[in-house]
Amino acid sequence: MKKINILFALLISISFLNLKAQDDPMKKWMDYMTPGDGQKGLAMMTGDWKVKNTFWMDPNGPPTVSEGTAKCEMLLGGRYMKMTAKAEMMGMPFEGIGTNAYDNASKTYQSTWIDNMGTGIMYMEGTMDPVTKVVTYYGSMMDPMKGMKTNEKQTITWNSPEMVTMVMYTIENGKETKTMEIVYSK
Fold first, then answer.
1. Nearest by Cα to 135 from 119, 152, 149, 154
2. pLDDT tens profile 20-79
3. Which 3 state secondary structure label does DSSP give 65?
4. Does the pTM exceed 0.90?
């Protein structure tokens, strides 16, 4: 009888541990899907922005400067930020769409960008410096002039609630070359 009681207690313990293990994945999934501080940070971009674009085709030459607009909105219950941008670039109409996310599980910011000046998708991933609050992304994009993908770095700096600066660099042989600066202002 004593052996039966021990066996019964052991089976109940195993069942309890099994139920607890089943609860943990659901909690993890709920944590993963629930918007938090990372998404609140992305939501600070919500609204209409004036944009000043500065591009360097040649790092030793003069930049091309243009103005435009950007509209940012949160999607899917505040989980993702979508940006739609319009401007002029090299005398042509420019349109682009970006998505930004904060992945609760990997603790990284993720960004995609598409525009009418290409046919590929740029993907970047990064983290926020806890002291400066600057998000630094790394990724790659196709450079049709070189016929290959180039490594890219992008920084997003919140100058104030009314101004955000994005700077893009191409990285070659460990050297960063500034190629673009976009200042968003309300």
1. 154
2. 545 688 888 998 999 999 999 999 999 999 999 999 988 889 999 999 999 999 999 999
3. strand
4. no
The per-residue b/e assignment along 168-179, b for 16 or more CB within 10 angstroms, e otherwise, is bbbeeeeeeeeb
- Which residue is associated with the tokens 């674009």? 53
Taking CA atoms, 137 is separated from 18, 46, 155, in Å, by 40, 20, 6
Maximal C-alpha separation, the chain? 91
Per-residue pLDDT tens for 81-138?
A: 999 999 998 889 999 999 999 999 999 999 999 999 999 999 999 999 989 989 999 9
Q: Quick check: 63 and 177 in contact, CB under 8 A?
A: no
How many angstroms separate the CA atoms of 119 and 3, rounded? 71
In 91-174, DSSP assigns E strands to: 92-103, 108-115, 122-128, 135-143, 148-160, 163-172
Instruction: Give buried/exposed letters for 86-114 (b at 16+ CB in 10 A, else e).
Output: ebebeeeebebebebbbebeeebbbbebe
Which long-range contacts does 17-22 make (Cβ < 8 Å, 24+ apart)?
none
What tokens does 45 get?
């971009």
